[in-house]
Amino acid sequence: MVSRNSSYGHLKLVREQARATVRPPRGFPRDASPVDAAMHAVNLIDSLDAAQTAGDSIIQGYDQRRLLTIKLREKIQPEKVRRAVNNIELVSQEQDKLILAFASKEQLDEFQSRLRAFSNGHSITYEKIILSLSAIDIWTANDRMGWSLREKGFPNKETILLDITLWPLDKPTEARKMQDSFEQWIRENSGVIVDSVKKPYLILYRIRCSSKFAEQCLQYRDVRHVDLPPEVGLEQHVVFTSIQDLDMIPEPPAGSPGIVVLDSGVVPGHPVLAPAMGDSQSFLPNRSPWDSHGHGTFVCGIALYDDVSKSIHSRKFIPRLRLFSGRLLDGHNQGNPKLIENQVEEAVQYFTREYGCKVFNFSYGNRNKPYKGGHLSGLSVTLDMLSREYDILFVIPTGNRDFHPSPTGDLPSSDPEYFTADEAGLIDPSPALNVLTVGRIARYDKSQSAQDRLNARPAVRSRQPSPFTRHGPSINGAIKPEIVDYGGNLAVDSLTNRVRKDGLGELSISHEFSKRRPFCTDVGTSFSAPRVAHVAARILGEIPTASVDLCRAILVAHARIPQPCSDLFAQEGPLRSVVGYGLVDRTALYRSLENYVTLWIEEKIGKSQHHLFRIPIPEEFWSLPRRDRQLTVSLAYRTNVRNTRIDYRGEMIHFKLIQADSVNQILGSLGTSSTSQDVGTMSERSSGRSVTHRIRSKGTVQASTWSFRQPSSTVRSQEFYIVVTRWDPTWYRDYSREELPYALVTALSDRANQTSRLYTQVKAELQSRVRSRIEI
Prior knowledge:
By secondary structure, the chain is α+β, with helices and mostly antiparallel strands. The chain is globular, with a radius of gyration of 28 Å.
C-alpha cells in the first residue's frame, strides 16, 4: 500500500509526433485614406519643412542626416514606412504610431518632390503608406528627458552625474562612429566619462559634467534619453532577537545547486551561513566583498533557507544549496559611479564561468526609473539579454513604494485602488520579461505584544498585498509581477499615527552577529524575491538537467492567488496586476504526490510551427462525487529583445488548451490558422479558466488553471490537448533562431481525494504510450 505521504519525481510529458505549420496572415492595412489626398500631401510638406527648420537648432551627431519622428495614423510595419520614404534608415519605433529615422538632405528633397507631385494629383508609389502618415517632426529636448529628470530637474550643483543613452543602431560600423563622435564631444566640453555600456541593444554612458553642459545633452541629435543615476531607496533592518543553542549546521550535500545573491555583500563567518558559503566577490572598485550595510546578509539568509523563522523554531538549519555572494552596493546600500549594468554582467560572467550558477537573486530597484509604458530601460534590457545569453534566471522584486497614513489616521491600503495607483507602478528593472518578478504579500497582521495589538492597526490583512508592493503590467500588458511571496507588513500606531514595522517583518540573518544579534527582522519586496529564488534553485536540485525556463514554468504552475487577495479586488485585471499568478504552493513543488502530479517537457520549436501534447488524464480524475480538481498548464521561454521596437519580443510562443476527439481533429483545424492568436477553428476551453489566452500570452512565462467540480459527460468523453504555437513578428523573422527552446508544464491536482492513485495511473499511461511507439 502506498503511503499518503510518499512523494515521487515529476513525470516527463510526451509530445505527439504530428506537427503543423502556421499559415502566415494575408492582406494590407485597411485603407485609411483622408478625404482630401492632395491636402494631406500639402500638410505633410508643411510639417516636413517645419521639422527641418526646428532641426537647425539641434547639435549635430556623427553625420549630417536629420533625425525625424514620423507620426502615423494607424499601426504600420516600420519597414513599409522606410521603403515609402526613400529608404531612410530606421532608428527606433517609440510608439505604435511613432517611428524615428535618419534621413539625408537628398532623401528629403526627393520625398518632398514626390509629395508635391501627389498634391498636384499625380500618382506615386506607396500611396497607401503615404496616406497613413500623420505628420513629421523632430525628437525634442523634452522627449530626451527621462522620468526622474523631468520630475526632479537637474541637481543644483556645479558638477553632476548623468546617465545618457544613445540610439542603438543596427549597423556596427555606424554605431562605432556615433560612439566615437559622442565621446569626443564630451571631452571637448570638459565632461568625464565615468562608465559606459556598449552593446548592440544598449549604448549607455554615465558622465560627470557641468550643469550648463547637461542642458546641451538634451539637444544632441544622437542622444535618446538623459536621466539621473539610480536611487535605490531600501529600508534599514531592525534587530529582532538573539537565537542560541542551534543544532550543528551541516554542509550542503555534494552537487547541490548554487544560488547567487547580488547585493551589498555578505558578513564573513556567520555561523548560519558559513557551512554553505561557496564564494564571495566584490564588483565594486576597491571594495571588499563584506557587507557593512546588512541588506545583503539578510537577503542571503532567506535565499539559502527560504523560511528562516521555521528553521529557528525547529532549531535546525539544513542548507540544501551552495551560497554565493556578489557585492554590487556600498555601505549605504547604493551603487557607485560604475554603471550597474556593467557590474551585473561582470558578476554573471564570473559566477557562471567559475561555478556554473544559474539562479541569481538581484534585490534591486531604481526609484528614479518608474515604468510608465513604452520601451524598457537599460537595466531591464540588460537582464533580458543576459538571461538568454548565459542561460540564467534573475529573480527580482517589484521595488518598494512609500506608505503614509492620512493625517486623520486613515489607512489608504484599505482601498484596492491604492495598490494600482500610478505612483505604485513597477520600477526598473522589474518590467524585464525574461526574469521572474516578485511582489509582496503580508505574512502577519498582528505582532506578538499585547500592547501592540491594542494600539497598532495593520496596514493590510494577512496574505493581502503588502502596503508598499508595486504593480504591473509590463510592456504590452505582460503580467508582472508573476509571483508574490512574504515580505512583511506595516502598522499605524493609533496614538501617534506613526508607521511601525516591528513584529510584522520577515526574519533572517543579521550582519551584526558579533554583537550577539545573529537574527533580525525587516520588511520590503527585497525579501520576498529571495524566497522565490530559493525554490527555483531547489528545483534544479530535483531535476539537475532542468533549464531555467523549466524552473519558471514549474513555479507559476504551482502558484495560486491567496483568498484574502481575491477578497480585496473586485475585478480580475487589477488583481493580476498586483499579485500575478499568486503565491507558490510548496506542497508538491519539488516532487509529485499521488493526488498532485506534475508533468514537464523541454522542447525546441521551429519558426511558425505548432507542437501538440495530449494530457494523460485517467478516468478516476473525473469520477464522482463532486469535488474540486484542477488542471494547470504553464509555459516559459526566453526571447531576444529589441528596445527600439514596440513589440520588444523578437520571438513569441504561446499555448492553448483544446478539447478534441482525436489528434487528427486538431490537425485539420490547424490548417486554417491565420494569425498568432488563432489555433485554427478550435477555441480554447474557457469554462473554469483562470487566465485568458489573450492576457497570459503577452509574457514569456504563462499559466492558466482550469477548475472542475462536476465534469460534464462531454468533458469526460473528450481528450485534452495542449497546442504550443510559435509566431515571430514579421520584422524579426530574419534574425530569430531557427529553433527556440521552451519548457511546458502541466499539473493535475485532485487533493480532495485522499485515496487517489492519480500519479500511479498517469505514470502507467505514459509508459504504455512509450512502449507503443517503440513497437511501431
